[in-house]
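Expect chain and fold; see below:
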Amino acid sequence: MKRKVKYITKLEFIDKLDEKERQELKEVTEKFAFRTNDYYNSLINWDDPEDPIRRIVIPTTEELDVWGKLDASNESKYMKVHGLEHKYPDTALLLVTDVCGIYCRFCFRKRLFMNDNDEVARDVSEGLEYIRNHPEINNVLLTGGDPLVLATFKLEKIFKALAEIPHVRIVRIGSKMLAVNPFRVIDDPDLLDLFKWFNTETGKKLYLMNHFNHPRELTKEARKAVELVQLTGTTLTNQTPILKGINDSPEVLRELLEELSFIGVPPYYVFQCRPTAGNKTYSTKIEETIDLVEAVRAKMSGLAARVRYVMSHETGKIEILGKTEDLIFFRYHRAADPENAGKFMVFKRNPEAHWFDDYTEKIDEYKVEMEEELV
């Protein structure tokens, strides 16, 4: 199964696109970075312009529609030192790279791939020192970018540094690599040895938080990579946003979540697509997505159905619980402000809402309506 995957950062090297398409998309790639590889491109049905894998990685002119913000969840607010975010007391995020195996077109951190961005730290020593000095941090998420883009010897240095911090009990890697280039795992026994060492010799636990968005990404190569990582004692989970035209049908979402649970990669979260600049074409309406998630949950075993439908909002991770004819219900699954921990929230329904702010911004309007009704 050995294979050298070729990375592609210019549209002119994709022969499946004609010259007219390349010219139309030039403005998009000048604004939002482009990166794919020949393995992932092989999963695309190029005869279908709406192919879901194509929508994940190939730009569209719809990305130029004015909508959203580059930092939709205001992550910069929680940047404590260069390359480290600390939003929840027990969890720290280390941004270890600004490169991914591919650049998903719906990425909520696409700002990291822009030339003027400096959020990622090439040297993570300052972030590691912050973690050492904050004993409340018991788990660290390596993210970016995709940490598995880094050479194994660079990952080893980070792992060994974290292993020496007594209060760090869990290290998580947020990665889409098993979906976009499973040979990164298959062909690197040193990486697998590193994972095994961390799980068996340090008294700590490693989690690989995968990012499979569509069932077609679960190829034989991806499944092989999953099996190899599992043999190291690493726990695997999966999280994906709900994406219009990619996994927003009951059949596709059910197949994805069920297949993941069947191969031992239980679904962790399904996210509401963040209102990031360029993402309008991928965003679904919350109240329609509730119906989608619940319809899928009703037909799956508990292992797959335990997945939570959430939003990563500036104020915390908000779980979308359900709705009635007139109302919609939310709860803080994780809250940045301790006073909001577990807070249950009820709002008047808004069928056009794509984000939590679409409800909170209408509070004053609803108050006026209620006062008028009382009069």
Summary: The longest helix spans residues 19-31. The chain has 14 helices and 14 strands. The radius of gyration is 21 Å.
